[in-house]
Write a structure and sequence with these properties.
The complex is a heterodimer of chains A (640) and B (103).
Chain A (H helix, E strand, L loop, with lengths): L6 H25 L5 H27 L4 E2 L4 E5 L5 E4 L3 E2 H24 L6 H20 L3 H19 L6 H32 L4 H6 L1 H6 L1 E2 L2 E2 H16 L8 H4 L5 H10 L1 H11 L1 H5 L2 H22 L5 H22 L2 H29 L10 H4 L1 H15 L5 H16 L1 H26 L20 H16 L8 H6 L18 H22 L5 H7 L1 H8 L4 H48 L7 H22 L1
Antiparallel strand pairs in A: 1-4, 2-3, 5-6
Helix pairs in contact in A: 1-2, 1-4, 2-3, 2-4, 3-4, 3-11, 3-16, 3-21, 4-5, 5-6, 6-9, 9-12, 9-14, 11-16, 12-15, 12-16, 14-15, 14-20, 15-16, 15-19, 15-20, 16-18, 16-19, 16-21, 18-20, 18-21, 19-20, 19-23, 20-23
Chain B lengths: L4 H21 L3 H26 L5 H31 L13
Helix pairs in contact in B: 1-2, 2-3
Classes of the chains: A mainly alpha (640), B mainly alpha (103).
């Protein structure tokens, strides 16, 4: 078949974008600043190279026994009888699938950015950070020990910070970047704690070794539960931060301040998927701990409905998509929790393509109209046919309409949750309805009706279709959004990944329609679409009247459950800043400084007292001498 | 009663104490000098007594006494010279008033 891929080329998969980052930062930006397109070209070339290598690696992994390639390690830090950290890669089915996702979406976004970011003064910086991000994400997916994975995890977070705050002179963007980094850091603290806990008990960072030692770790007890449960919960905490699950989801909507291609790549398809990937990679650890799996499923299920409620009322197209991402990530976590690796990752695979497409479509609309506010859009269906068509396809996919991609993975998750956690199944069903509703609300308000935006003199009064460099990636992603679900029709995707079958739907392309669950989910989705049509397109129901009818709920949703106020005003400002930190500051200035100054003051006061003995009178000094002599005689006589 | 070493040593101690008391408490510088002379003479008596009663043939103590007398004389001379110099600049020889080197 194909030639065996030399392991050096596997290393090259993530080194190529790193190389392009280095070239852009060190050569292009300083010396060739007036030729911005070069950065784009080298990034696209590097990522295309990575994509080709990833496809080759995938074919190899498909053919390899056990679906894993052996890659030699590089010894990094070896201390006799203690630490042995090496620098190695895993190339198994999970890594191969993730590589495809990351490289394909990244490539599409980079090509799209050539059009979207045209004329921006920070062009070099943009592509440098995009290259670094892609390299970090690919590295994160490939490495085989937790320490290196943590390094790449943080690097990915750093790139997210840099790219969200790309237009740093806008205060909203700078604050959003800070918020993203800080909130994900809170989760990363849990992750680090888990890594350290695992190391102190298993004495290794290597993932394969930890998986082998998992049953032993499950038997060790620590603070009430087993070591394994705590470690799994810590790892999941990192995933909660990175994948924007409740309660650390607050950074993702604000992260929409960044450029739209950044949102497409990082906050839809790849970085936020890193949390899901981490849980999948460490899944054998989770399998031994019932409590951790349950936590994953519950938080995933709750987050998905929680975020969907907020997506219902947002007026900014990117915010709707952000809440949609949080909700779909909740689905993925639910899938991991109740089903297994294959189910969660399958949804990640499909979601990456259609969510990236949705964001690119939003960017295209913004390129034409100059705004993201769906109240000022409308009628773009005829003006921007390609954008409309691809956005519609992606919306149908995310709503879970047969036979598009989203249907297959969503129904897998629904089937598994029905078997294992029925309550979460009902929540997930309601979420299906809400997802369809809010996506089609956006579709109808943006593309249907008459154009409501822009005054007649400005550019935005005459919107136009985007240039081909932006449309072609969208079309490619649209094909993937239609077809990526078909990989599992015969269950092959699930078998490839292992650890959890995708069972109920191995009935074939049309055969699945015989299954009652499929019809229930299609009905829910259809109802959502119908309601959106009634409210926003045909106007059978008035949106304003329904808003007034459900006013308390509407306020709750549009104020994001007041969580931002809770976190920023109450927790950060009152409890921490004015409470704990002020107390600590008082301690520092009072007790610590007081002790230091107190010692000095005591010395000075003592000196002030003692120097009174220097009277200058000779006879007093003579008296002291005599007394001293007497004391010496006394000591010598009595103590020998 | 025959005189023994202890009688001379007690005399020496009493004289030394008298001299010490005078040196530490008297105001006039000349009286301090006189007290120092008393202390030196007390030592002389002790020296001679030790020499006479322990090893009379060597006369060590008597010789040492002569040294002490000579040194005492020189020292009294220098002391008086200093007192005269102080009197010239300060118009006083009160020891309590000469206290420049203080806090």
């Amino acid at each position: 078949m194909t030639a065996a891929i030399p392991y050096q080329l596997v290393w090259l998969i993530f080194l190529l974008p790193l190389f392009s980052f280095a070239v852009i930062s060190l050569i292009f930006r300083p010396f060739l600043n007036n030729k911005p397109r070069l950065s784009g070209y080298i990034t696209i070339a590097a990522i295309s190279g990575s994509l080709i290598l990833s496809i080759w690696a995938l074919t190899e992994v498909l053919a390899a026994p056990g679906h894993e390639l052996a890659i030699p390690d590089i010894s990094w830090l070896v201390i006799e009888g203690g630490i042995n950290i090496h620098f190695g890669l895993i190339m198994d089915s999970l890594a191969a699938v993730m590589l495809i996702v990351v490289t394909v979406v990244s490539l599409m976004v980079q090509i799209y950015s050539q059009g979207y970011m045209r004329g921006d003064p920070g062009y070099h910086r943009y592509y440098a950070f995009m290259s670094l991000f892609t390299a970090s994400m690919l590295g994160l997916v490939l490495v085989d020990n937790l320490l290196l994975m943590y390094i790449f995890w943080e690097l990915v977070g750093l790139c997210s910070y840099l790219l969200i705050g790309f237009w740093f002179h806008r205060p909203a963007a700078a604050n959003a970047a800070k918020k993203a980094f800080i909130v994900t850091r809170i989760g990363d603290f849990g992750f680090l704690a888990a890594i350290l806990l695992l190391y102190s008990n298993a004495h290794t960072f290597d993932i394969a070794t930890l998986i082998d030692k998992a049953p032993g770790l499950a038997a060790m007890s620590f603070l009430g539960a087993s070591v394994l449960t705590w470690a799994a919960i810590g790892i999941f905490a990192g995933a909660v931060g990175k994948s924007a699950q409740f309660p650390l989801h607050v950074w993702l909507p604000d992260a929409m301040e960044g450029p739209t291609p950044v949102s497409a790549l990082i906050h839809a398809a790849t970085m936020v998927a890193a949390g899901v990937f981490l849980v999948a990679r460490m899944y054998p650890l989770f399998e031994h701990s019932e409590a951790a799996l349950l936590a994953v499923a519950i938080i995933g299920g709750l987050t998905s409905i929680f975020a969907a409620t907020m997506g219902l009322v947002m007026t900014d197209i990117k915010r709707v998509l952000a809440y949609s991402t949080i909700s779909q990530l909740g689905y993925m976590m639910l899938g991991l929790g109740v089903g297994g690796i294959a189910i969660g990752i399958f949804h990640l695979f499909n979601h990456a393509f259609f969510k990236a497409l949705l964001f690119l479509g939003a960017g295209s609309v913004n390129h034409a109209t100059g705004t993201f506010d769906i109240r000022h859009m409308g009628g773009l269906r005829k003006i921007m046919p390609w954008t409309y068509a691809t956005f519609l396809i992606a919306s149908l996919s995310i709503a879970g309409i047969w036979p598009l991609a989203g249907f297959w993975s969503k129904d897998e998750i629904l089937a598994s949750s029905l078997e294992n956690q029925p309550i979460l199944f009902y929540l997930a069903m309601v979420t299906v309805f809400m997802t369809a509703f809010y996506m089609f609300r956006v579709v109808f308000l943006t593309f249907g009706g008459q154009y409501r935006g822009g005054d007649s003199a400005s550019h935005s009064a005459r919107p136009h279709e985007s240039p081909p460099v932006m449309v072609v990636p969208m079309v490619i992603l649209a094909f993937l959004a239609i077809g990526s679900g078909w990989l599992n029709i015969t269950g092959s995707f699930g078998q490839f990944l292992g650890h959890g079958e995708t069972h109920s739907f191995v009935l074939g392309f049309f055969g699945v329609l015989a299954h009652p669950l499929a019809w229930v989910s299609l009905l829910m989705a259809g109802a959502g679409i119908l309601l959106a049509y009634a409210m926003y397109s045909a106007k059978w129901l008035s949106a304003e009247r329904i808003t007034r009818l459900f006013y308390p709920l509407h306020t709750l949703f549009s104020r994001k459950y007041w969580l931002d106020e809770l976190y920023e005003n109450i927790i950060a400002r009152i409890v921490l800043l004015n409470g704990l930190f002020a107390g600590l500051r008082l301690f520092d200035s009072g007790v610590v400084d007081g002790a230091v100054n107190g010692v000095a003051n005591t010395m000075v006061a003592t000196g002030r007292v003692i120097r009174k003995a220097q009277t200058g009178q000779l006879q007093l000094y003579g008296l002291f001498i005599i007394l001293g002599v007497l004391a010496i005689i006394f000591c010598l006589y009595f103590f020998g | 009663m025959s005189l023994g070493l202890e009688h001379f040593l007690i005399l020496s101690a009493i004289l030394f104490s008298i001299g010490l008391y005078g040196a530490l408490t008297k105001r006039s510088a000349i009286v301090i000098l006189m007290s120092i002379e008393i202390m030196l003479n007390a030592v002389n008596i002790a020296m001679v007594a030790f020499s006479r009663y322990i090893v009379p043939a060597l006369l060590t103590g008597q010789v040492f006494t002569i040294f002490i007398i000579a040194v005492a004389a020189a020292e009294a001379t220098v002391g008086l010279a200093i007192i005269i110099a102080i009197y010239r600049s300060r118009e006083t020889i009160d020891a309590t008033k000469i206290d420049l080197m203080k806090w």
